[in-house]
Design a protein that fits this description.
The protein has 314 residues and is of the alpha/beta class. The chain is 35% helix and 22% strand. It has a 9-stranded mixed β-sheet, with helices on both faces. The protein has a 4-stranded mixed β-sheet with strand order 3-2-6-7. Helix 8 runs antiparallel to helix 9 and helix 9 crosses helix 11. The structure holds adenosine monophosphate (AMP).
Length: 314
């Protein structure tokens, strides 16, 4: 099975309470692709500028990621500058230089036409929709977005939502999208817009999956919501990309499974948490670049242990 991801491939300049990093490799598609590459084949569609070096590309290709869909344009790469304070639950955007992203029109290599799973990472919903329409035969479509698109590009975002099997957003975004402060009601309102299932990320507190009756073929009643933990970590170095890494672990694991079942979906939520927990341990992509499948399985077992309850038998 393979995943095609479209989204930002970027340079990030980051300040966190633990330090600073200048123009390091980032981008939603980058973090997603690295995390998903531990589970399945990944193909990336995006655009970079002339400042994107062969060393940057090697970070992806070393993990077996297919970068043929990354267009090299004449200009500078997308550059995001952000900072985090306190508990680092939310990024403050200091600047967003779209650069070559401003005129980006996704081109999908012919060899990608047989892709089974599509991930629409954070990007202009107009572009997300264009990629969705160019890939009519995929088995599953999952997407992400952010406040910026929810607040100012609502009409085009709603067209994307109508196309999604699974939407992954954080709690603030779910509230902003629906105007509902109660998360359960917000989830119902989101799914009424199109997504069959919804994964709401709560940062350091884990993630919750909500299901509709359309979530799984053959099921007539919707499974209960499912809450997956986040690993309590004593030190977070850089939270950038945690959400995209969660999405990569979640969707990569789902794509590696023989069938989309509620059980596979729940395990995928744990793998999402595992990949998110690695992502924050070093700046940028460093930690994900240097992890192994063995470490991932070890941490998955840790996730099982920290959320396991023995039911008393009187
Ligand atoms: P997250 O997983 O939410 O921490 O995503 C962080 C990544 O999103 C960073 O590596 C940024 O390069 C990227 N990013 C920030 N703003 C945008 C935007 N407006 N569009 C696309 N990607 C963005």
């Amino acid at each position: 099975m393979s995943i095609l991801v479209v989204g930002s491939v970027a340079f990030d300049t980051l300040t966190t309470p633990t330090g600073k990093a200048e123009k390091i490799l980032g981008g939603a598609a980058t973090h997603f692709a690295l995390a998903a590459s531990f589970f399945t084949d990944v193909r990336v569609v995006g655009v970079v500028g002339r400042d994107f070096t062969p060393e940057n590309e090697a970070i992806l290709t070393r993990r077996g990621i297919d970068t043929a869909g990354i267009e090299h344009a004449d200009g500078l790469s997308f550059h995001w500058t952000g900072s985090y304070t306190g508990a680092m639950n939310e990024a403050t955007t200091l600047s967003t230089d779209l650069n070559v992203f401003a005129d980006f029109s996704p081109k999908i290599p012919a060899a990608y036409a047989d892709t089974d799973f599509l991930f629409l990472a954070n990007i202009d919903p107009v572009l997300q929709l264009r990629v969705r329409e160019a890939m009519p035969n995929v088995k599953l479509v999952c997407g992400d977005t952010m406040n910026y698109w929810i607040a100012d590009h609502t009409a085009s975002l709603k067209k994307v939502l109508a196309e999604l099997d699974v939407l992954l957003i954080n709690d603030g975004e779910a509230r902003l999208l629906t105007g509902e402060s109660n998360l359960v009601r917000a989830a119902e309102a989101v799914m009424a817009l199109g997504p069959k299932s919804l994964v709401i990320k709560h940062g350091e507190y884990g993630a919750t999956a909500f299901f509709s009756t359309r979530s799984f073929p053959g099921l007539t009643t919707a499974p209960h919501p499912f809450r997956a933990p986040a690993l309590p970590l004593s030190e977070v170095i850089d939270p950038t990309g945690a959400g995209d890494s969660f999405a990569g672990g979640f969707y990569g694991y789902l794509a590696s499974q023989p069938a989309l079942t509620p059980e596979a979906f729940r395990r995928a939520m744990f793998y999402g948490g595992v990949m998110g927990s690695f992502a924050v341990e070093q700046f940028g992509t460093k930690r994900l670049e240097n992890t192994t499948r063995e470490e991932i399985e070890e941490r998955f077992r840790l996730f099982e242990r920290i959320s396991h309850l023995d039911v008393a038998t009187k």
